[in-house]
Each structure stands twice: as structure tokens, then as C-alpha cells.
Records
---
Amino acid sequence: MKLVNSTTDTVLVNDLRQAYSFWSRFKGLMFKCSMPSDSALHLYPCRSIHTFFMKFSIDVIYLDEENKVVGIETNLIPGKIGWRYKEARSVIELPAGKLYGVSTGDTLAFAE
């Protein structure tokens, strides 16, 4: 699945993976050594994240129920807790440095 910024009509990643069950969200990116540069992980439902037991930094996008960006964090290093956004309903984790061209207020879409 692709992740597209509908506001700018830009493809952000071509390999969006889903973590929609309790266990897939729980495991997330823990213990992985890296993440391919053209991939991301969508966690739903989710309002906040942590990077405990991770081995690399990530960029984070927080989305509301309409997939509008309500928060952004860049270069969240391992061992940290991300912000908690009250409006957030899902979170997208991307490799650090991949979050260029996304702003609060943009709307994202998931495409096949």
C-alpha cells in the first residue's frame, strides 16, 4: 500500500505496512535493526508511541480520524516517548529524514 500526501499530491512511501492488531502494534519496530527507506508503519488505533528497544531513529506523523496531520516529530531517537496528541487516532512511523514535504494540516491517503 502507498502513503500519499493528498494536499501536495506526493507519494511519501510505496510500502506502507499495517499494524492494526494489538500484537502487531505492541511489537511495532522493536528489535529491528533498520527500516527500508521507502517503507513506513501505520499503527491504528494509536495516539502516541515510544522508541524503547528500537535501534534506529524515526520520523512520526500523527493523524486524526480523517487522516489529517495533527502532529509531527522528526528524528525521534531510540529510548524516547513521543508526544501524545489528543486528536490523534493513528500514527505513521517512517525512517528518520523521510518526513520532508509534510506539514500539520495536510491530509494523507492510503492507495493500492
Note: The mean pLDDT is 93.
---
Amino acid sequence: MSHRLFEIATSGPGLYEFTADLARWVAGEGAMEALLTLMVQHTSASLVIQENADPEVRTDLQAYFHRLVPPTSDPAMAYLTHTYEGPDDMPAHIKAALLPTTCTIPVLNGRMALGTWQGVYLFEHRDRPHVRRVMALLR
């Protein structure tokens, strides 16, 4: 069993792929068969496994969730009370509550068993840059 903390720098809302970093670490650990568990250590970001071939998928997902949960400056969100950290904060918490903050990936023959077009992403929901921490446990 081993673990590692990954730090992912973000520059605003969007999906940030870190599949290659995970794959290098997993391969270096020498585990032939294992489970890789990931958990983002924040309440305003998520983890998703999503297509990594066409960047329009990431653009559309970001646009969809922005439309689904707009900032508190939008009149439709006037009912929210947690607004003192900025108009993007409470919507970011809602998005993180709707999307996964953990995921588990099988490791077979020392490689993550992802599909051909699948990548692992941190989904940043806040407007300003952050350094997000993702804890990885391989067992």
C-alpha cells in the first residue's frame, strides 16, 4: 500500500487533466493488481473521469454546470445565503455536492484500467486560481 498527494494548479473554472501524472506514479509503484482511490481535499472542486480526446467535451461540461448553477449574482440564485466569499463560492459548493469528490480506478498489470478515451480530471468550480490537493491511495 502506498499513497501520494498530488497538487494541481488551476487558473479558474474548468477541467484539469492529471491522468499522465497518476499513470507515472502508479507505474513507479510496481503494483500489478490494485485499487487506486482518489479524493479531492476541497469542498469547491470535484473529480471526474471523462473523455480526453475532444476538448469540446470539457468546454460543454463547464458551460452546462455554469448554466445549471450560476453565480449568486444571477437573480435566480438570490435565495442563497452563503455569499460572503464571492458570487462563485456557494455555486462551487453545490457543484461539488452534485459531482464526485472521490473515485476508484482498478489497476491491472501496473496500469490504470481506464477506457481508450478516458482521462482523470480535477473539475475546478471557483473563479480564481487555486492549488488543489488530491490524495491518492494505491492498495
Note: Strands lie at 2-10, 14-17, 33-40, 45-51, 102-108, 111-112, 118-124, 130-138.
---
Amino acid sequence: MTAKKRSTPATWKDPDDAPELTEVFFKSADLYKGTKLKTRGRPKSVTPKEPVKLRLDADVLAALRASGEGWQTRINDALRASLVLAGQLKTN
């Protein structure tokens, strides 16, 4: 049977034993604006895309995938252009 490992190091007793606050510490620290945690990374999209399940013919899918990376985006653009031409969608 294995013993449990401590997930954090033992707490220090004297404030003078506290670890030094280095540049690495501040780079990984949480940032707050007032009382609200400021998130990191890419901002959330106002109009996020939705995942869908779509059944395509094998030859159509093979041709799309053979066109290289970004084939899903090109499908989205082609569908958008088709809907704009049909008058079912307004241009951005």
C-alpha cells in the first residue's frame, strides 16, 4: 500500500521562513480587478460557434479533408455565402 503524498509542502511556523517572492511567483499568481478574478488567455467570443454532427458522403468528406487544414472553416464560409446569395442571411 502506498502512503499519501502531501500535495503542498509543510507550512512554515515563522514568517521569516516564508519563501522568497520571485518573478516566477508573480507570473503565475492570480490577478484580481477589485474583488473579481481577471481571467487569462483568449477572451470569450460574443458569438461562439456551435458544434454539430453532420453526415456527409464519403467522397465529399475526402475531398474537403484533402483540401488541407481549415477545411471546416471553408465549409462554414461556403455555407454562409450560399445563404447570403439565397437571401436567407444578411452579410456582416
Note: The two ends are 62 Å apart (CA to CA).
---
Amino acid sequence: MCVIDRSGHVSVIVRAGHLSYFFAGDASYTQDALLAGRPDGVTFYPRSAVRTLARIVAYARVEPMVYLPAHDPQSALRLQAAHVLPRDAESA
């Protein structure tokens, strides 16, 4: 499954068993930025970026999800440990 927002961002979700692996590309540079609801990096549409982050968090509430943004140095550790984003996570 791919998730594409109107500004052209692409994320890929891979489902394996009971987990989803959310390859976020540049939706956020880190999981902390996702949880803060804070766009980071370059964005031409800040409101759209904030909505995208909120949609990702909403997905994590219904599907166990390992969040893997491309620039987060912790992504490899989360992948290896299958560390799921907390279901009670909230973006601002």
C-alpha cells in the first residue's frame, strides 16, 4: 500500500503478519517529530504536512505500526526490535 499526499509525498506500508511497517520517507525526519505533529525538513505546504502527520498517527491507533522515517537514526533499531508506535500516541 502507498500513501500519497497532494504535494507528492509518498510513504509505503508493508504489512507482515500482525504488523505494519510504515516506510515514511520524508513525512517526518524522526519519530519524535511525528509525535510532536511538527513538520521538519522542507515543505511547501505546512498545513498539509501537519495533516499528513495526524493521519499517520491515526493509522497507528488502529494498526500496530513500526514507524521508519528515512532520516531517523533510530529507525534501524525500531525495525530490528519491531518497536510499535504506541497506540495512545498523539500528534499536536
Note: The chain has a mean pLDDT of 87.
